[in-house]
Design a protein that fits this description.
Blueprint lengths: L3 H11 L5 E2 L10 H14 L3 E4 L2 E3 L3 E2 L3 E2 L4 H12 L3 E3 L1 H7 L11 E4 L4 E5 L2 E7 L10 H13 L6 H10 L2 H9 L9 H7 L3
Parallel strand pairs: 7-9
Antiparallel strand pairs: 1-3, 2-3, 4-5, 6-7, 8-9
Helix pairs in contact: 1-2, 4-5, 6-8
Length: 199
């Protein structure tokens, strides 16, 4: 039978390099003390890297460039696991990811249901901005992303083509959930939501 430490190492090695994690990522495998001791041991061996307090990664090793920087999106996902907050890419980034805008934001900025803060993870700053448009209601990831992308674009920046794209992005279930929770959104965005859900 494998020890808890073996199971933790096995989970890490079972992930792709670049995986960012916290001690909570192993809470189903071992007690907190065992997790802490194991991560400290793996850190000393150079198997994992500590990015910040309570945040580690299984670093990507490039044959020529050496150890690469951690992926900001993976870091944000780990922060969300650690804090319990809902964290998504910024509205500008979401608009780009969803094909609503061609501009690619240069900074690693994310919206969060938690408090606004700036964290330095490794050498790179990660900015978290509180957003009231990350609902606690059971909305899908795509729905939350569409809402925040539209909020970033603003009333005068949303075109009919963008509305059509949003219609295709959301499933019928997404649209039904959005209809039920529409009253929680800002008044200006509701006419666009009605077009997206087909009303």
């Amino acid at each position: 039978m494998k020890s808890a430490s073996d199971l933790i190492l096995r989970r890490i090695r079972g992930k792709q390099r670049g995986w960012v994690f916290t001690p909570k990522s192993f809470i189903d495998l071992a007690p907190r003390v065992t997790i802490a001791v194991t991560l400290h041991r793996l850190l000393k061996k150079g198997i994992i890297r500590k990015l910040s307090h309570g945040i580690y990664d299984f670093p990507v090793q490039h044959p020529k460039l050496g150890v690469l920087a951690a992926n900001p999106d993976a870091i944000a996902k780990a922060i969300a696991l650690k804090t319990g907050d809902n964290i998504q890419p910024s509205g500008a980034r979401l608009a780009n990811l969803l094909g609503l805008d061609t501009q690619v934001p240069a900074k690693s900025t994310y919206i969060t249901s938690g408090s606004s803060t700036q964290k330095k993870i490794g050498k790179y700053p990660i900015t978290l901005k509180h957003s009231k448009l990350i609902p606690s209601a059971p909305l899908s990831v795509n729905t939350v992303r569409v809402i925040n992308a539209l909020d970033h674009l603003g009333k005068d920046g949303i075109t009919d083509d963008m509305v059509k794209k949003c219609k295709k992005i959301l499933s019928q279930k997404d649209k039904s959930q959005l209809k039920k929770n529409m009253a929680k959104l800002p008044a200006w965005i509701i006419p666009f939501i009605l077009k997206i859900i087909g009303k």
